[in-house]
């Protein structure tokens, strides 16, 4: 496999009109918004994209719609995490036929897998996946880590082309970056956007950052400043990213991260903020607070 990824790759939200209908006009605006912001790729059907809450029919529709509109301008990575091995392969095959660049898979959730089971699971996937694989470490939601020793055992598989780490543990991230001694071609990307600058200093290749749905230019500029070693500019841009994190403190449930992102896009008139069951969009008091933060960030970026 010669595929590699770097830069800012937003985990795209899934614009919805109802629980099983895509907001296609909003999706088109969102795609053009992030592409115009200079992002280096897209990750669809991840956590921010509400993948586990979406029907398989809608997931396929989204994959086709996104790849058709992107039309080869940037790579599209497709999340295929599922509790069913068969469904993961089936969705991967659809992604391949639609023209995706790679698939992304976290550990199966609900029943926690042991590391020996996880190793066998990934090896079985690799035998059937039609596309390169990016491993997705998301222990807060799947209950299982891709332990370093497990990743090391998988390093000889050329079909694995990278790792997205959303653990929030920078020491773990540093150890994953260290595995580039075995696989210098691997792309190692950070999930938590507040850690983008720190991750780049450690040797990361970029970020899969939800805030880039809303402010793609901000994250791309920060990534570029990191690559150029312009610490003064990194400090200024990172300060704005840290201030933006206040938007995720609105609301009291774990779903507030998706709600805040979709609410922001709705206030920017990019796409609808409908959220798949069992969640609900922000009501007016929360929307007003999001609007205030949006205005503040825009002023800081001038």
Task: Write a brief structural summary.
Helix content is 46%, strand content 12%. With 302 residues, it is an alpha/beta fold. The protein has one domain (7-228): TIM Barrel.
Helix segment tally: 12
Low-confidence stretches: none
By CATH, the topology is TIM Barrel
Provide the residue-averaged pLDDT.
97
Number of strands: 10
Based on secondary structure, the structural category is alpha/beta
Give the helix level as a range of percent. 40-55%
| CATH level-1 class | Alpha Beta
CATH-scheme architecture = Alpha-Beta Barrel
Strand order of the largest sheet: 1-10-9-8-7-6-5-4
Integer tally of domains = 1
Spell out the CATH superfamily.
Answer: Aldolase class I
Spell out the helices and strands N to C: EEEHEHEHEHEHHEHEHEHHHH
Largest sheet: 8 strands, parallel
Indicate the overall shape.
globular
Give the quaternary arrangement of the chains: single chain
Radius of gyration, taken over Cα atoms and rounded to an integer in Å = 18 Å
